[in-house]
Amino acid sequence: MTLARQRAHPLRPAMMCPMLRFDDAWIWDSWSFDDGTRHHLYYLQAPRMPQGNMRHDKARIGHAVSEDLRSWDVLGETFGPAGTGAFDDLATWTGSVISAGDGSYRLFYTAISTAGHGLRDQRLGMASSTDLHTWTGRSTAPIAAPDRRWYKTLADYPDVATAGPDVDTVSETWRDPYAVRDPKGDGWHLLVTARAAGAERNDDGVVAHLHSPDLETWTVLPPLSSPGTGFGQLEVLQTRELDGRWVLVFTCHPQEMTPERVARGGEFCTWSVPCEGPLGPFDIDAARPFAADPTLFAAPLVQQRDGTWAILGFHNLEDRGGESFEICDPVPVTLDDEGYLVARAEEGQPLSSRVRHRPVGHRFGGMSGSDDASAWWRKAVMYQVYLRSFADGNGDGEGDLPGLRARLPYLADLGVDGLWISPWFPSPMADGGYDVSDFRGIHPMFGTLEDADAVLRESRALGLRVIIDLVPNHTSDQHPWFLAALAAEPGSPVRDRYFFRDGRGPDGDEPPNNWISAFGGSAWARVTEPHGRPGQWYLHLFAPEQPDLNWTDPTVLDDFDDVLRFWFDRGVDGLRIDAAPAMAKKAGLPDADYGGVLQFRTVDWDDNPHWDVEQVHDIFRRWRAIADTYDGDRAFVAEAVVSTPERLAKYLRPDEMHTAFNFPYLKGPWDAETLREVIDATLASFEPVGVPSTWVLTSHDEIRPVTRYGRPTTSSFFITDGEGEVSDLALGTRRARAAAMLMLALPGGAYIYQGEELGLPNVDDLPDEVLQDPMFLRSGGAIRGRDGCRVPLPWSGAVPPFGFSPDGVQPWLPQPECWSALTVEAESSDEGSMLSLYRAALRLRRSTEGLHAAPLAWRESPSGVLDFDRGTLLRCVVNLSQQPVEFTVADVLLTSAPLAGGRLPVDAAAWLRPQAE
Ligand code: NOJ
Known about the structure:
single chain, alpha+beta, 8-stranded parallel beta sheet, 14 helices, 15% helix, binds 1-deoxynojirimycin
């Protein structure tokens, strides 16, 4: 085949068409329509945010026309009244245009509410036009009823007639609608990407098929593909009858490119698959790549005037800052003997020789991960502030925001990059503030919103990022929503924000299912109805004072969108999402199979109806879309204890959370092999999704490392692990020092829990009467719970309250008398202290330029010794064996214990320059 030389023709520059702003927009999905005289090209354009994502809420449809597919006239933005391009409340994904046969045209599009309902709030829209440029009816004539719910089933749409038994095989999400007139005159076909009904994976897409005789009423026909291909988001569906054969053309997200697929087609790849006979099922598994090129990804298939077929694509003009595009000349495609599309630029030349590739990491087709390798959350060391125990500014024995403000310089000096502040909202404190009664306020015990603003402002001035703790799985039982639900009758919509259910058993006096609470006992509590008798039950996966929210209720979704904005608007850099895997529950709330372990051990549960249920990811995608509308790299960190690193990695896909706490690392024992396995597994599962790992030793929920590592049981899978065992605190401290150096030498981010840097032990002998943890209370005292790691910090002086509160004030939990050597003051002047070690390690880490991006490579090492390089910048050796390790003393940067005759002692770590052998 001889093809004409391919040349790129720029679309008209911004100067000639100021509305188009082609020079500062990011272009992605596009589609075309041929009215018989001219080709119309429609393309989505939106400003791009610093981290590379689109501003979906600012998306516009651009419109250009051409007679020869080579030179284009840009008509400007289309869609809104008089071509204003204004979407009322809608953004869109790819659409398609067809002729209605009566001189008018229809535009089908996926509507995404930008009123805060997120990318997953999608529906089909249909608009009409007589000039192909100005469209009406866009938000009033959707095929599917406007609704803020997502993942409705087709049966939920009253306007869509359903036919055949297969209707149940399709449910939402609607995406990339492609309409085509039946060439035999049998009405119109509409193909949309939909999720298979019952599919566990949201991205397990099928090609749904609707048919209409008149463009008014639609019938759902059996899908044109089977679920389970793993090609989830078949984007930019197009189907045409070419030379008498139907061919389906699609692109899909680069994330779905398994190594096998990449080998077949490349990461940016357009696929085709024919079907035999009339429009019928396509075997997606049999699809073949035909255009493996980013420029031709998500590009329309067009028929040229001579009857031949071609695809169009966009160049990204990198020399203009990567924000400008020009359109490619059409790349001819033909059908091979088996009915697959074949594309070539020039004889014998790969397409890529002709087009320029987008900057590495940019992805087409809509959402993309942050491509900014320098985003702060990729490498930050965050310091967890458990406010109530950090510093008391007003002398009432409880830590607060004024106390934190006064100590911010301490944190800046420590060398951390930011803070994570545990819940600061109004709360009855039934679970240390994780029972929130107002998500937009500050607990009076901690201060005011003005105090919070001051903390944000002053932290920023000190170069510290601030993330706050959001607790979305549940509210307090004193939250106005729950009080309203209690006051309402069973069946009232206000009860739908929670899980109210009738009980089992003849009198309904048994819980609705067998689910257990994280804090022990049943996860259900029975209410007294307004009439005064026992009635329904409500779900609480944690304490009864923490009723679980129902995240399929639109009012919950909407309100939390607003909560996110409330805090982002105030300037927080990110949100830590508490109990993230709990937020979706399997429909019908079926009994769980706990495999006989009647403790809340999420790591054991692979398939559970109330933990890590697939639909949680929809919520995070919705939230990510909101975060991405803000500048400044706002980030989410998930608290997600799930069964495997692979499952954790799902929370970190490019359109979900940014990072997650690494619980397997936190919980494992002090054992070289286990640590190495966790490190390897973490890196292996995070790398493919392109996110940084985080490393963490402890938190306000865990046994403090000094105590834990000094016990015979050094793991901490459950809070009771090692409980009651005597801890050798000297041994624990040695190991905790080595553990800190190991953690801070690993690639990615890290979390330090307040007091960890002082080497505080757990306070295991708090008197029962001061314990407040619901675990202690709900277990009838059998489990002591987490108060022992929440004892207020010692700042200075020789006796309690050690500068935490003014002298003479008793802090809310008593501090041990023996902490005088562990105060910030005492440790600051002791070069051998834990604090000095943390300071030195954090300084070194920060001053070693490029360290965050340096890969980890293991060295050969004796059994029980961890030894790795971080590129050429740092070598870390940790001795968990039973005997000292020999090594060269030259170029030692830092050690956790003095070297003994050039040997690294047992339970010690060293940082070296890598060349030192
Ligand atoms: C995890 C928090 O870290 C913990 O303190 C809390 O009890 C539970 N989530 C429930 O919110």
